[in-house]
Amino acid sequence: MALKIISVVGARPNFIKIAAICDAINESNKVLSSETIEHVLVHTGQHYDVSMSDAFFRDLELPKPDVFLEVGSASHSVQTARIMERFEQVLLRENPNCVLVVGDVNSTVGCALAVKKTSCTDPNDNSEYIPALAHVEAGLRSFDRAMPEEINRIVTDCLSDVLFTTEESANRNLLREGIAKEKIHFVGNVMIDTLLRHRVKAEKSTILRDFQLLRNGVAMPFAVLTLHRPANVDDQETFARLLQALGEIARRIPIIFPAHPRTLKRIRDSQFAEYFVDERLSGRELSQSTARIRLVPALGYLDFLCLMSHANVVLTDSGGIQEETTILQVPCITLRENTERPVTIEQGTNVLAGSDPSSIIRAFTGMFQKGINSHQRPEYWDGNAARRIVTTLLQSSLPGKSNPRTSWAGEAIAEPGQR
Ligand code: UD1
User: Whose Cα sits closest to atom 4 in ligand 1?
Assistant: First the structure.
């Protein structure tokens, strides 16, 4: 009997996570002809630039979305409301058994809210039901409610019927918040599934040559920087402190900075041009200063993976990059006061440096000299997380057409070593 699943993507990190799930669904449909999954891919349009969206669909060979909601950019409330309004129509039309949301962006919470407020209709008997909501990457907590993502995580988790977790801290957080153990499934990390699958292909990228980072065919020392969080780039004082440290580091090692559109806007509107050489403008420089960060276009998945793999150190305020560098064994300096991914700190690949210039420079000096000594990887970060997710969903009774139940009940958290 067919199971109908809607998967939602909206922003850049979602595409990477859903790629693994699309692959696992295709694989399952090939193997199990009796239990096929009808998969509907919905793109909210939260990210819409070619560099933020299309490049990822191409690199990850994602299918063209079945539905495109075109919500675009707006304030958080307006963006979330638009997503809810447009996604409700999709639910009413498609009548899925389950909606799968990933991560912590506005598309995640907007669609989660719509699912739990919409009655779908079983065409067989016209009975009404609420679809099951599955959250991939559930339970992560920074304990900083000033972060929009933290609000999105908490709301999505408390609405979800099945919660797929990436690390032990997430299991503990969910249990502490009163989520029933039966709903929590410790499956591993779909972002790492995608990384492991594309690592070899990424090595064919010409990005090191394009950025003139090769000397005699070998990568020279360089750092990669990503920065886009509102707390870092919208606040001029914090941005200035970060740039003071980054400018100092740029005197020691080239820093390659593929910039998010939000950050580019902030740089243009600010007095900070002296820190950058703008390579997006065919080598034209923004200023004549000597300590400069190389501003390059936002990159596609394969180019960025190649760049990150060969970097001596990565400086970032992204969540996913803290995880990717853990698997790549590249030292990561997180330009935030907290992380919702503590396993990356425990592994020794990531340090929290905040925005204090001396603390960032100290972290850089330590990481650059010492490198990484740990060769373990976090539990279940083994390339099979998406397969575990699909298997769990197939083995479950879901509300709607094929299994007329009104609530979803999963299995207990898998204890380490049980799988
Ligand atoms: C969003 C996520 C963040 C995630 C990030 C990954 C939320 C609350 N935040 O942040 O968790 O780490 O994506 O990139 O969902 N813009 C463009 N083109 C685009 C998309 C955005 O120019 O394709 C500009 C717009 O001016 C927009 C701004 O970037 O206002 C911010 O975009 P938005 O989607 O609101 O949040 P992100 O900062 O991208």
Answer: 105
